[in-house]
Amino acid sequence: MPELPEVEAVCQKLNEARIIGKRIVSVRFQRPGIALPQVASEIEAAVEGRIVRRIERRAKNVLLYLSGGLVLRVHLRMTGNLIVVPDVRFGPANARASFEFSGHQALIFEDARALGRIHLHTTSELRRLLAPLGPEPLSAEFTFEWLREAAAQSRKPAKLFLMDQNSLAGLGNIYAAEALFHAGVNPAKPMNRLREAKIQRLHRSIVRVLNDAVQSACKAYSGPAQFSEAEVFSCFVYDREGDPCLVCRRKVRRIRQGGRSTYYCPGCQT
């Protein structure tokens, strides 16, 4: 599933495609169900004729701000991706929604498993919808002081705390596991039992891991789980159950937390 670095890569690639300032002349939802509980035909009518003003990421959402105070919110889910093609008539077979500009150029939402979602909001609706989200881990708001205070108020295991979008926005399973490894934090340890030195290390690790992953994803990402040889982000624990730790050589373990697999090194993470 695309996580923060991959969603950030999608946004950066869309901005590089230079569709900002272009008018959407036609909209078609090939899979109307991706708009539920909204109505696809109503989104088509509302978006047609709007100009793309800016493209941003918030948590794992891609936000396309349009003229007239409307925002398309795209959640990629498991296999979703957004691409710009030179001619909508020759788009991918798994296109689920198409936003056509003049000259047939188009923004395509492709999604092999059709699990992604596209919704339309006013800017005020979007603000209320995203208000519960925690700070962005790569923003100026995410400071060591903020993490220390939040940790002191939470009894959640460290891994579940990091993946709670109301605690910290956008951090997913892979990068939470990697950040905890580099900080030497056991994923099952309650946040309010972490010493200040460990919290400092965790803060630095989150920022470093995500920055490295974003740089790598922007070079190599072409779609969900699709990376070219330019991908340079290496996992130390994620998906390495039974393999020797790259630092201490003890075997990497896997436990279940919140219905997801957590990978960690019992030697390095205490």
Structural summary, described in words:
The chain has 270 residues and is of the alpha+beta class. It has 2 domains: 4-130, Alpha-Beta Barrel (N-terminal domain of MutM-like DNA repair proteins), CATH 3.20.190; 144-264, Helicase, Ruva Protein, domain 3. 30% of the residues lie in helices and 23% in strands. The chain has a 4-stranded antiparallel β-sheet with strand order 1-6-7-5. A 4-stranded antiparallel β-sheet has the order 2-3-4-8. The longest helix has 25 residues, at 196-220. It is elongated.
- Quickly count the helices: 7
CATH homologous superfamily grouping of the largest domain: MutM-like, N-terminal
Strand residue percentage:
15-25%
In CATH, the topology of the largest domain is named N-terminal domain of MutM-like DNA repair proteins
Radius of gyration using CA atoms only: 20 Å
Strand order of the largest sheet: 1-6-7-5
Can you tell me the number of structural domains?
2
Name the helicity range.
Answer: 25-40%
Structural class: alpha+beta
Largest β sheet strand count, sense and barrel closure: 4 strands, antiparallel
Whole-number mean pLDDT: 93
**Count the strands?**
12
**Any idea of the CATH class of the largest domain?**
Alpha Beta
Q: What is the CATH-assigned architecture of the largest domain?
A: Alpha-Beta Barrel
* Outline type: elongated
Low-confidence sequence ranges: 227-231
- Sketch the topology as an H/E string, one letter per element: HEHEEEEEEEHHHHHEEEE
